Amino acid sequence: MTDITPDTLPRAATRPRPRHRRGHRPGRASVLAAALLSALLLAAPASVLPATGAVAATSPSPGPTPPGSTAVAFAMAPGDRGIVGAGGAVVVDLSVSNPASTMLSAGEVRVERGNTPLPTREALDAWLADGSGVDGYTAAGSTVLDTVPARGTTSVPLGLDAAAFADAPAGVYPLQATYTTPRGELTSRSTVVVTAGDQPIGSVTVIVPITAGAITTALPTSDELAALTAPDGLLRAQLDAVSGTNAVLAVDPAIAVAIRALGGAAPGTATAWLDELLSLPNERFALQFGDADLATQIGAGLTAPLSVGDVTALAPDLAPAPTPTPTATAGSTGTGTIPTLDSIGLAAPAVLWPASGSVGSTQIGALGAVTVDDAPSLTLVDSASVTGSSTAASAAHARAGEADLLVYDTAVSDALRRASEAVTEVAQDAAVAESSAYSALSDPTTPLAVAVDRSTARTSDGIAAAIAAATALPGRELVGLSALRAVFPVDAAPAEVTADETDVAWIDAFTQFRGDADALAQFATILAQPALLTVPDRARTLQVIGNAWHGNSAWADAVAGQRERTAQTLDAVELVPVTEINLFGTSAPLSFTVRNDLAFPVSLVLYTLPGDPRIIVQTTTTVEAGAAQATRVNVPVEARVGSGEAQLSLQLRSPTMVAIGDPMDVTVNVRAEWEQIGVVVLSVLVGGFLVIGVIRTVRRRRRGADDGDGDGDDTESTTGADDTVGAGTEDSDG
Fold this sequence. Notes:
The protein folds into 4 domains: 28-194, Sandwich (Immunoglobulin-like), CATH 2.60.40; 202-292 and 330-499, 7-stranded beta/alpha barrel (Alpha-Beta Barrel); 573-671, Immunoglobulin-like; 681-734. The protein has 18 helices and 31 strands. The strands form 8 sheets. Strands 9, 10, 11, 19 and 20 form a 5-stranded parallel sheet that branches. It has a 5-stranded mixed sheet with strand order 12-15-18-17-21. Helix 15 runs parallel beside helix 17 (555-570). The longest helix has 61 residues, at 673-733. The chain is elongated, with a radius of gyration of 43 Å. The chain crosses the membrane at residues 677-695.
């Protein structure tokens, strides 16, 4: 019997990056492709050339080099976050990849900066897209790259001429590198930021998600937690990157529940990680359980995000922890009481963060109406999701109707996300430099919010680099969530979004989950604590619609697995099928078997109805079925017919009258006359044996009496003879 328990691509030189409309978020397949091909691209923007061909080429926005391609890839990116250092110091990294089977001869690289700074973000978009909008260049440095061997890569740093930047006015300057090879010319573009000592300082709020990735179980397993919190694990990298910063943490509470639910069996690295999270002073808020997709839930008709319920049902065997000594640290609850399983420390309530680009006016309106313990919600959206005046689009705190919004900058956040995904140093530097450029072109008098956004392709080094860049954007000082919320909001209007095929698939899947959950909620009434089934099921549902699954080709299997798991639970309790029973007598109990594959005992009522009046049954029989076992149930039956067939209909129900399993019809073969015949035969046999016994006893006694009489006569005869002989002897002697 089976027990059922609850249980990238480098940056192309185009701006703006297309918004992640639903179904167009970076997927795992594209992430894997990016990791494989990044060694060829190395950085972005970059240029590629075929292995043969002498025509100069400029490819400001190259696509991925197809597997087996022999195109040469060249990339340039400035270090130091793309910010010109004191005295005009700038160092750029140059990288060339030659996948061809022949070597690439040495070639010169010339680096130039634009004569004038880019005035607006639109100008920056145009420069990165096609190199337009630049009014001449100033030479900044040159070098000769050595021969690149066949299927080899060369990366070198190049210090630029400080004089080219020392006297440049503050601003964002175009930076271009041209690589001349026998096969043609390749170019790569980026930017540098020249700062001024007297420029105004604005504020920036950095939001960092702390998530565990795509899983199908209600909670991360012990092995998964051990891997995630290991020195090279993703959760470890996320926490290390935010330690010592004022970044706002968006924490998936399922991680804390998973660690606490394991109790003493939790990996040591996981418990240490949770202790460290709670000790951090950073402001924070809880994501929805499993970082579930909010837009999918609203699209399926929910008016508020689905609650997982009482999370203690996820750890039914966990012994209560002792009450700790009252303490109050910056990151703790400060109450001195046992933290709840899902506690992530002192967190801002009712903060909702849908995936970037996934919500429009309908979803924002619904989320804006959500309250938690009478606290109004704050919804985080990317700036591309907000329309209206430039002031509204750039404001970090806004209102759309009744919805309170925190608007994070799409351009900067996208660049930071790409930095977190980068698998090469040049690609990472290019993305970081771009984030600095877009930040420098924002209004310093307006608070700025940025996010190191969710991504399944984030690397440990990339996360650290992206957060370091976000917390050191030029002309910005870091502030927390509460400071940003204190800023008076501006009016804004959310953009409209149109659901695509992927959106429809997610909404359909979630709708099916909800239908299954309704059936499970009815079924769970057989338990003393229905939450032991319903809470784990909701937790798995939220995990499967988690944002980490977007673009993952295994999502369809995850959906099928969740539905199959629920179906198995619904089939875990049933009457063992039987089609025919023989009843030898007018009354006797009929035995049936209830199978319970659940890990919990269940309470049931067996309803039995006769098919005709010739048979009388006990209509209700209470059943207490133990966990993971089969339980025998006896139903008293009385037949009013000597011989024949009768039908019984049986149905298991919960104490609340919910049908459990399918109904079962049983044919009862009544053989009541066999009982009478058996009694007669047995009586005859017993009577016969008694008569026979009496007769044998009488005969034995008579035979004994006859034998006694015969023995007396013989004795007398013998005595007389003896006497006669004796007398004769005496006479003779005389």
